[in-house]
TrEMBL record:
This is Cysteine synthase. It is an enzyme of class 2 (transferase). The keyword Transport does not apply. Its cofactor is pyridoxal 5'-phosphate. PROSITE patterns: CYS_SYNTHASE (PS00901). SUPFAM superfamilies: Tryptophan synthase beta subunit-like PLP-dependent enzymes. One of its GO terms (molecular function) is cysteine synthase activity. It comes from Mucilaginibacter ginsenosidivorans. It comes from the Bacteria. Keywords: Amino-acid biosynthesis, Cysteine biosynthesis, Pyridoxal phosphate, Transferase. Belongs to the cysteine synthase/cystathionine beta-synthase family. InterPro entries: Cys_synth (IPR005856), Cys_Synth/Cystath_Beta-Synth (IPR050214), CysM (IPR005858), P-phosphate_BS (IPR001216), TrpB-like_PALP (IPR001926), TrpB-like_PALP_sf (IPR036052).
């Protein structure tokens, strides 16, 4: 029988039936909330921990420290407990209570701080003491490598190689960097579209990073186009996905869907796949669906 780790990946894709504005374009939502930890971050968390173990960077009993806006932390907490690793997670204090409780349920210590930048600074400072090992999803190649190995090939397989456009929100940028690497290998004509918040918008899971905090794994040359999404657009679309398509997902998924649907309206034909990165129940204590 499979363990919980064996259920990570091979998530389904569903076609948008009502929100797609163009009958000559197909839009698929890759349902990453179907991962056991509830998000696309299960993939990166598993690959970062497993690769560090294989290299001998960490072992059972090692204390991990990581900054997270939520989904990566939940995934790391779930996987760390399976490998007998201690973990402390630095989380922005404005995160939904569900996120903190989920991390603590897996045995993680959670430290709440003001903003993700402060969380990143805190994690790096603690790692510098030598008492903790930082996986550092923002600069760790094992983050995007997870998507070269799994997410990209799954989408290619499930569209029978017909995908023309890939759309993803950009946070750590691991998903878009890994998928871009894979897609450009199998078909350089596939367009890679990233989305980020407009200035002043706050969308959990999507960031417009200050230059000093731009993820080191991010290579702008691997993204063909970046589209800005407003907070109101992402919120409205998350609600529409639930009410019109039965897809219960968070704001970052709403943001990616906004970009995918606008793109579809501009094309003559094509097959668009966007990442629906987590589940809506992670936001029930917020006003997202209220």
């Amino acid at each position: 029988m499979p363990g919980i780790i064996d259920l990570i990946g091979n998530t389904p894709m569903v076609e948008l039936k009502k929100l797609n504005p163009n009958p000559n374009v197909t839009i698929y939502a890759k349902q990453e909330g179907n991962n056991p930890g509830g998000s696309v971050k299960d993939r990166a968390a598993l690959n970062m921990i497993r690769s560090a173990l294989e290299r001998g960077d960490i072992k059972a009993g090692t204390k991990l420290i990581e900054a997270t806006s939520g989904n990566t932390g939940i995934a790391l907490a779930m996987i760390a407990c399976l490998y007998d690793l201690e973990i402390e997670l630095a989380l922005p204090s404005n995160s939904t209570r569900e996120r903190t409780l989920a991390m603590e349920a897996f045995g993680a210590k959670v430290t709440l701080l003001e903003g993700i930048e402060a969380c990143r600074d805190y994690a790096e400072e603690k790692a510098a003491t030598g008492e903790y090992f930082i996986l550092n999803q923002f600069s760790n190649p094992d983050n995007y490598a997870a998507h070269v190995k799994t997410t990209g090939p799954e989408i290619w397989r499930d569209t029978d190689g017909k995908i023309t456009h890939f759309v993803s929100a950009m946070g750590t940028t691991g998903t878009i960097m890994g998928c871009s690497r894979y897609f450009k290998q199998v078909n350089p004509d596939i367009r890679i579209v990233g989305c980020q918040p407009t200035e002043g918008s706050s969308i959990p899971g999507i960031r417009r990073w200050p230059e000093a905090y731009l993820p080191k794994i991010f290579d702008p040359a691997r993204v063909d186009e970046v589209r800005d999404v407003t907070q109101d657009e992402a919120t409205a679309m998350a609600r529409l996905l639930a009410k019109k398509e039965g897809i219960f997902a968070g704001m970052s998924s709403g943001g990616a869907a906004v970009a995918a649907i606008k793109l579809a309206a501009e094309l003559k034909e094509g097959v668009i796949v966007f990442i629906c990165c987590d589940r809506g129940d992670r936001y029930l204590s917020s006003n997202l669906f209220g």
